[in-house]
Amino acid sequence: MNYYELFEIPFSFQVDATLLKPKFYALSRQFHPDFAQGADAGAQERMLQQSALLNQAYKTFQQPDTTIGYALQLIGAIEPDEKYALDSEFLMEVMDLNEQLMEWEMEENPETLVQIQQTAKDWMDRLETAAAPVLKATYPGAVPPEVIAQVKEYYYQKKYIRRIWDRMAGGRNIA
Length: 175
What we know:
Blueprint: H1 3-7, H2 17-31, H3 41-62, H4 64-74, H5 88-107, H6 110-136, H7 145-171
C-alpha cells in the first residue's frame, strides 16, 4: 500500500495539508497498537506496521520536496540516488553562481552576497511559478509523460539551488 492509498487521497505532487491532518488523526486512532490488546500476535504486528507506515507517510507529506521525491519514485520516474543529467545551460548558470559564491567566501563582500541571494531567489521563484500548476494538480490515472519530465527537472534543479542556499547559510548566519 502506498502513502496515497493509505490516506485515501488522490495522487498529486503536493498534498493538501487541510485534508491530511484530520485523516492522520483518524488513522492514528484506528492503527494505534494499544487498541490491538487482546488480539492475536499477528493482528498486533499488522497494526504496529500500519502505525509505522502511517507515521512515515505523514512525515513524508509534511515536507514538499520529500513528497515530490516519493511521488516520482512511486511512479517509477526516478531511482534512489539517481544521477540525473540536467540541462547544460542550467548547469553553466549554477557553475557561474558557485564561482561568485567562492569569490564572496574569499572576500566576504556583503553586496556580492546580496546579489547571489537575489539570483538564487529569482531562480527559485521562476522554478516554483513554472511548476506550480503541475505540482498542485491531481492525477487520478496515469501521470502524463510531459508532466513527469517537468516535475523531475524541477525536482533536480531545486536540489542544486538548495545546495547554493545551504552553502550561503553555512558561510554566514543567513536564513
